[in-house]
Recover the amino acids of this structure.
């Protein structure tokens, strides 16, 4: 496997270990080198840094370093760019509370029906919207997801 030097440098900086494609990744490991390179090419280094920061600095999302997880976080960073610029700390705090690994596991039931990236993105965005959307300050006593 050929690893572009700029991708290797970013992974080293964020403490992400790149492994061979024949191994199953442990937390903090990835074999999605081409996904990282595509995100870098399409959206630039700053964007990829935000994606990696979101995953590595917030909660235990080190299992999301696969193609689905990386693209989903990239989508959320693009959708919430203004929010991140305005409230970076709250962004990371909210990601600390999102059970993204559990949500990704649930999305596997949709494999073959709905692209996992989009299903997971919808589930995560719903939680981000509840935290930062226009009605975020209104308590809904019947909704257990208000806690994030």
């Amino acid at each position: 496997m050929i690893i572009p030097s700029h991708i290797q440098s970013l992974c080293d900086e964020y403490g992400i270990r790149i492994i061979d494609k024949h191994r199953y990744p442990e937390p903090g490991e990835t074999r999605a080198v081409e996904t990282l390179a595509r995100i870098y090419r399409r959206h630039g280094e700053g964007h990829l840094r935000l994606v990696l920061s979101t995953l590595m600095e917030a909660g235990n999302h080190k299992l999301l370093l696969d193609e689905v997880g990386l693209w989903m976080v990239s989508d959320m960073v693009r959708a919430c760019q203004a929010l991140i610029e305005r409230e970076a700390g709250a962004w990371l705090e909210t990601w600390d509370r999102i059970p993204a690994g559990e949500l990704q596991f649930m999305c596997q039931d949709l494999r073959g029906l709905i692209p996992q990236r989009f299903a997971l993105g919808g589930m995560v965005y719903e939680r981000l919207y509840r935290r930062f959307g226009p009605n975020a300050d209104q308590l809904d006593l019947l909704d257990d997801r208000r806690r994030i």
Observations:
- Residues 116-132 form the longest helix (17 residues).
